[in-house]
Structure formats: structure tokens, C-alpha cells
Design brief:
- The structure is a single chain.
- The chain has 300 residues and is of the alpha/beta class.
- It folds into two domains: 1-35; 39-298, Glycosidases (TIM Barrel), CATH 3.20.20.80.
- The chain has helices spanning 6-35, 55-60, 71-76, 78-90, 120-134, 164-179, 196-200, 204-210, 227-240, 264-276, and strands spanning 42-45, 65-69, 94-100, 111-112, 117-118, 139-145, 185-190, 213-218, 245-251, 253-255, 258-261, 281-285.
- Strand 4 (111-112) and strand 5 form a beta hairpin.
- The longest helix has 30 residues, at 6-35.
- The model is unreliable at 21-31 (pLDDT under 50).
Length: 300
């Protein structure tokens, strides 16, 4: 009688279980991403220009989402913002309130350096504000901007686990929890760099668990780059953001040093590069510097 190699069978069973576990994990990840909201054909609009926007023109040119700066609420009031958002909705455009989180003229540290703990007082105050924005009738999303440090995140890492990346992630997770029962899309802008954690405290993979959409700000002019860089950046962030969709932020002007509007063909080329790199959508920064429009649905 041949002796049964129980050790070999046991190893095969363990390997099979591991494979099944990995497959289940991947399927769960795919299902999670599939259930997340998308943001395609978007444009950022400064709050003060809300009433200057030609909604018919944007709708005609395939714009499906507007990131409206929260200053519109301060300037025009919730009721007027709501009425404007409803008009946009009637034209097939969703309106997201664009919220600056840790910078609004001055930087706020996500860590309370005196307590060496997360800056919960500020977190809670900001989340209360975000909740009010999300409750405005006609608003479809919240767009988190400046969820980061200005470039010195590596200076704030304490041995008790209170680190810059954990602080930024904690804030976004708290926003996500607060909005979980509301029918809104949550998106977050991130820097388009591979060292986001070190300099900005942005752990993109972790952040992707809490938001529907990660938006790398692939502003090529600011980095003196071209469309090939945008494509590579889109591919990189698509591989990094396991749990969310990825929409690429596309700059429509030369650079922050020169706000001359780019030619339409350049904007088209850069947008196509983002989609070719695997992005789920594109968002144009910004409406004020977009001098001529083209149908965003024609970017293939």
C-alpha cells in the first residue's frame, strides 16, 4: 500500500485556501469599486462666478459635473445656490460643493502639535460645515480639496501613531462616515506625485477606501510636462487607488505662473492622455480660464 504524503496534501490545501482568499479579496475589491460613484466630464468653478456660468453651453458640450467653490454659499446664500444647482440638474449636470479643507488663506495642521493628537476640534468643525453643504437641495457631491500639508508632512510623525498620513486619512474617513447615509458623491484631490505621503500626508491607497473618486491634479504646466506625463500619472494613480474611481484633473491654462489659456487641441490631447492612461474621467481646472469649449464626450 502506497503511503499517503499528508504533509504534501496539507501544503496543497493551504495553498488552495490562500488562492481562494486572494481571489475573494480581488472580487470584493472589484465589486467595491464598481459600486462607487463616477465623476466624468467635470469642471471647477469659483464661487463668485456661479451666476456667470452658461449652463446651457456646458450641457451642450458634455459637462456632467460642476465643482462649485463653497464661497458661493457665503456670497449668495444656500437658497440661491440650491436654486442654481437645481437648474444645473435639469440640464443633466450634477453640482458638487468644492471645499478647501486644510488651507483657506492659511494652513491648518491636521495634527494638534500641543496634544500630539489628531486635530479633532478642527475636524469636527469642518465636518459640520461639510454636512450643511451636503444637505443643500440639488447638491450631488462634496469635493475635498487641500486635504494635505503644504510639503512638510514628514515633520509631523510621532511615535504614538499620530502621523501626517494617519491624520489626513483620519479626517477623510470621518467625512466619509458623516456622509454615508446621504446620497452624495465624495471626491478628493491629491497631488500628482509619487511621494505624496512624505511631503503631503496623502496615502492614496488608504484614501481610496473612503471616497468615491480620487482626483490627481495632473496640472502639466506646473510641472513643465506634457501629455505623456499625464498618461503615465493616470496609470500610476489608477494602480494605486484600489478602492475608488480615478478622475484626472486637467489644467486648461499654461501654468500658475502664466494663466494664458491653452489651445483647445492641447486640452483635448491632455484629456485623451488621461483616459488612455486608464482614468475613469477628466475634470477641467478651471471654468474661468476655459476660453473656448468643445464637446467633452468626443474625447475618445
Amino acid at each position: 500500500m502506497r503511503k499517503i504524503d499528508t504533509k504534501s496534501i496539507k501544503k496543497r490545501h493551504i495553498a488552495l485556501i490562500a488562492i481562494i482568499f486572494i481571489i475573494a479579496l480581488l472580487l470584493n475589491g472589484f465589486a467595491t469599486v464598481a459600486l462607487k460613484d463616477s465623476v466624468q466630464n467635470a469642471v471647477w468653478v469659483q464661487g463668485k462666478h456661479m451666476n456667470d456660468v452658461d449652463l446651457d453651453n456646458l450641457s451642450k458640450n458634455g459637462v456632467q459635473n460642476i465643482f462649485l467653490h463653497s464661497s458661493a454659499v457665503d456670497e449668495f446664500g444656500e437658497k440661491n445656490v440650491s436654486n442654481w444647482a437645481k437648474k444645473a440638474n435639469e440640464k443633466g449636470i450634477k453640482v458638487h460643493i468644492w471645499v478647501q479643507c486644510f488651507y483657506n488663506g492659511t494652513w491648518v495642521n491636521p495634527i494638534d502639535t500641543d496634544k500630539k493628537d489628531f486635530n479633532y476640534d478642527y475636524f469636527n468643525k469642518k465636518i459640520d460645515q461639510i454636512d450643511k453643504f451636503a444637505a443643500i437641495p440639488g447638491i450631488s457631491g462634496i469635493q475635498l480639496d487641500y486635504i494635505r500639508y503644504p510639503g512638510n508632512a514628514y515633520e509631523y510623525n510621532y511615535p504614538n501613531g499620530v502621523t501626517s498620513t494617519n491624520a489626513v486619512s483620519k479626517f477623510v474617513s470621518m467625512v466619509s462616515d458623516s456622509l454615508k447615509d446621504k446620497d452624495v458623491t465624495l471626491s478628493a484631490t491629491v497631488m500628482p506625485e509619487k511621494e505624496d505621503e512624505k511631503y503631503y500626508g496623502q496615502d492614496v491607497r488608504t484614501l481610496s477606501q473612503y471616497v468615491d473618486v480620487i482626483i490627481p491634479m495632473a496640472y502639466s504646466g506646473n510641472y513643465n510636462q506634457d501629455s505623456s506625463w499625464i498618461k503615465e500619472t493616470a496609470s500610476y494613480f489608477k494602480s494605486l487607488a484600489w478602492w475608488s474611481k480615478v478622475t484626472m484633473g486637467i489644467q486648461v491654462y499654461d501654468s500658475d505662473e502664466n494663466e494664458t489659456s491653452l489651445p483647445i487641441n492641447t486640452i483635448k490631447e491632455n484629456s485623451k492622455a488621461a483616459l488612455d492612461g486608464g482614468a475613469d474621467g477628466i475634470a477641467l481646472f478651471n471654468w474661468e480660464l476655459m476660453k473656448k469649449w468643445f464637446n467633452l464626450n468626443h474625447i475618445k
